[in-house]
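Hypothesis: this fold can be encoded by more than one sequence.
Test: take the structure tokens below, design a sequence, compare later.
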């Protein structure tokens, strides 16, 4: 019985990850081709520009309002960009072991949102972001979060 439940849970996770990742590139293509250059002079300011770009790329995936007290998953990423805003590396610092599909979806969203605004004054960027993900799959980024209830 436990084996069947485990197989069913794994299958559902895989199916969710595939359906989310299959839809992401199409959604991102229309908005990422014209990423404006960032005028940020600090990594903190650039992090805000990158968060705004991700929000603009995935407006339907943003959780509106205050998040519930307990979110479904928290993913902490470190993203490295070249001087033109293209993603060079994504390091997953913290991943939810109970929701591997969320980790896959976050990585895919970051890749699909590339290029980010070009960090022209910084000559490249490396920043950490916290993704707060609700059970619905909608998210807020720590840089732009509205807080929790």
């Amino acid at each position: 019985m436990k084996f069947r439940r485990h197989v069913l849970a794994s299958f559902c996770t895989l199916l969710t990850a595939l359906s989310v990742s299959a839809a992401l590139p199409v959604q991102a293509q229309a908005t990422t081709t014209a990423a404006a250059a960032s005028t940020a002079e600090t990594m903190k300011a650039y992090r805000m520009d990158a968060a705004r770009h991700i929000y603009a790329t995935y407006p339907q995936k943003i959780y509106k309002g205050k998040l519930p007290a307990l979110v479904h998953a928290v993913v902490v990423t470190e993203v490295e960009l070249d001087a033109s805003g293209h993603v060079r590396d994504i390091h997953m610092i913290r991943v939810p072991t109970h929701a591997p599909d969320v980790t896959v979806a976050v990585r895919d969203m970051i890749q699909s949102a590339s290029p980010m605004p070009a960090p022209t004054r910084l000559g490249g960027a490396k920043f950490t972001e916290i993704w707060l993900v609700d059970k619905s799959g909608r998210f807020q980024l720590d840089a732009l979060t509205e807080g929790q209830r």
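The first helix runs from residue 2 to 32. Confidence is low (pLDDT under 50) at residues 3-33.
Hypothesis status: open.
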